[in-house]
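2.7 Reproducibility. Because tokenized structures are sensitive to small changes in the input, we list the exact sequence used for DeoR/GlpR transcriptional regulator, including any N-terminal residues retained from the expression construct. No trimming or masking was applied before prediction.
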Amino acid sequence: MSQSFRQRDILEIARAEGRVRVEDLVTRFGVSAQTIRRDLSELADSGWLERVHGGAVLRSSVTNIGYEDRRDTNEAAKAAIAEACSVAIPDGATLFLGIGTTTEAVAAHLLGHRELLVVTNNINVANILAANRECEIVLSGGRLRRSDGGLVGTLTTSVLEQFRFDVAVIGCSAIAEDGELLDFDFQEVGVSQSIIRRARATWLVADHSKFERSAPVRVGSLRDVDRFFTSAPLPEEVLRLCRDWGTEAHVVAPEAEPRERAAG
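Resulting structure tokens (single pass, no recycling of outputs):
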């Protein structure tokens, strides 16, 4: 395989899985580790990837990657997280579902739930849940973020302040080593803080790739989260912080049955 085709395929793998590892690529393409490292370095120099120990991840910046790419990244992990989260949501609950492709996956797993009231600032979530006639849906209003169907701003916050949620299910763009939840849009700060104040329980749904990314805006902390559903064991320092803060970490492997693999 030529270098250009190999690098194209490496980039497609990174988009699908969130990161690539040298040893995996060596096996996949049948070339030396030195060749793969050179490919990754050239992709990094071109701005497509960011080198990390043992491989590379999608480049993070002040701008998030496109919605379609995010939706197609780590689909199996998101589905497993969504199933585990939805199983824990009882019928008759009042929910908030936030912006993000993983929260949209949660919505898809709620189509069999009954007597739900779901408030959301995510147009995609509302469209998904419209198929469930046992679910009352309230859209928050606000400024439309065309890139992903999110509603943000002061109007969004003011509407959310009128509700008291049994559970708020939120996502984030990145998670820092100190447990901070990060995003790309400063207008989400007020929305996220309002959600956390108005929820009896706050649940975070975020796959393992969020530990490999960065974003410029702090929207909260794992300290504010009651349950954290993710797809791989947490970094040791983050796990220690979760224990100190009383945040339950539920690690769900995509290939396993979520209810069997969830761990508090």
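The mean pLDDT is 87.
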